[in-house]
Structures are given as C-alpha cells and as structure tokens.
Write a structure and sequence with these properties.
CATH topology of the largest domain: Protein Transport Mog1p, Chain A
Number of strands: 11
CATH class of the largest domain: Alpha Beta
Helix content: 40-55%
Shape: elongated
Number of domains: 2
CATH superfamily of the largest domain: Mog1/PsbP, alpha/beta/alpha sandwich
Radius of gyration: 30 Å
Structural class: alpha+beta
CATH architecture of the largest domain: 3-Layer(aba) Sandwich
Distance between the termini: 76 Å
Amino acid sequence: MRIGKPTAIFLSVIFFIELLLLFFLLLFFWEGLGDFLIEYRFIFQIVLWVGGAYLSKKFYNYIYNDVKIKEGRHAVAVYSSTSDKGRKVVVGLVTLVFIVFIVYASIMIFSSNNIDTDNEVSINHFNNQNISFNYSNNWSIESNNSTDIVLVDSYGRYIYISIDKTDGYTLDMLYNLYRSSWEEDENISIINSSNIKINNIPAIVSYLNISYNETVNMSEEMLNIVSFLNIKPNETKHTNSYKIIMTKEDKYYLISYYYTGDAINEKEFKIFINSFKV
C-alpha cells in the first residue's frame, strides 16, 4: 500500500487531533487527574503539544512509504512491503476513529439546531376572564395571577405578560418611559420599533437585543478541561426580545417574548399574538 506525501501529512494531522481528543477523554473520565494537571498546567501543556507533535512525526514516518535514503552520492526512494499489513491496520484505525468522530459531532450539532417549527401543533386556549389567547401545546403556563402570566417552552423561550394600571399615562407616554429605561441600559440595544394593532387595539412593538455575562454550566470534568486550556468558563450571551405595549381602559399590558439566538418560533408566536384579547 503506497501512501503519497499529501495523504501522509493529512493523516498525521488527523492523528495529532485524535491524540488531543484521547488526552481530553482521559482528563474527563480519570477522577483526580484534572486537579493534578491543572496544578502543573504550564508544564503539561508543553508536554502535550511537543509530545503530540513528536508522535505525529513518528506516525508520518511510519505510513509514508517513499522514504529517501543516501546511497552513494544520490538519494533513492525505497519501499518495503514487509510492513504493509501493519501500515494498513494503523491507517484504517486512524481513519475509522476520525469518521466516527465526524459522524458523532454532526449528529450532536444537527440535534442541537434541529428546532422544527414547521410541524403541526395542537392548540390550547387560555382564558382568565381578563385575558384570553391561544398557545401551542409545546408551551406551558408557569405563572398565572392578576399581575403577570408566564409561558415557557422546552427550548428556553418564554413569554411574559405584565398587567398594571395606566395611572393616566397614554400608550405613547408608556412607550417613551420604557424606551428611556432601555436606552439607559448599556446591555440593551433597540433594533427597531413600530406601531401595530392587536385585535384592533393600538400597540407598539419593539425588537431588542440583550447581552449578559453567564457562567457556563458544566460538569467538574469539563471545568477541568477548560481550565487546563486557560479558557474562562463564562461568556457573553445574547437574548432577543419582542416587547409589545398596549392599553385598554385603565390598564396597560406589556408582552415580552424572549428567545436566544435564532431560536425564534414565529409560527407559535403568531398563534399567540393573533389570538390575544383583553
């Protein structure tokens, strides 16, 4: 089995990546190893990269058939078939592990992003004499009282309905008060605002982007890995929100729809907002 130089280089890079993955698996499952490595993190980082590079070079020399040697004044390419069987097994194992990893990673990415918004959904109806609306069976009512109603779904999206007295404020005045508070918050960006009607009642909808720092929730094993790599276990996240303000008689209603990233479900939100009545 002859392996060309580009293929040998590619397989050597794959081999190096697999060595790193093997190390992280040991760090993940070997109890007590993480604390020891973190204590001497700098030394083990050097050992990891240098050792991985050395083993990858040895792997490259093993699988690359056209090894040039000096014979007199000329370099000649030699090829030995005696190690073909072992070479085939090693290359096959490295390739198989790489394929398994790619398939597994693809399944995980696809599963995490596969939020199906096109399936038919069953509709539930809510009515507490003051407010009524329809909502998908993917949502559940978490709170229901005279001042707020909260709906959540399994993807972390939620709708918050706040009810309060207008105290003489008009719709525009209430909107300006909320807009001022949003503008004062450096973590909130107002993308746009517009006038709409909900069941023939005037309302103002605003689209906001909200940033916040969050410590990533992870297991102790994963925390050991990110600490070993000098990665901080917190990050800035962004939540998107639709804010709808509307008034009727002496009450005003603030509807807030929160979702992360691109996880908006327009179909289910339209089911809710098009049926909303006060």
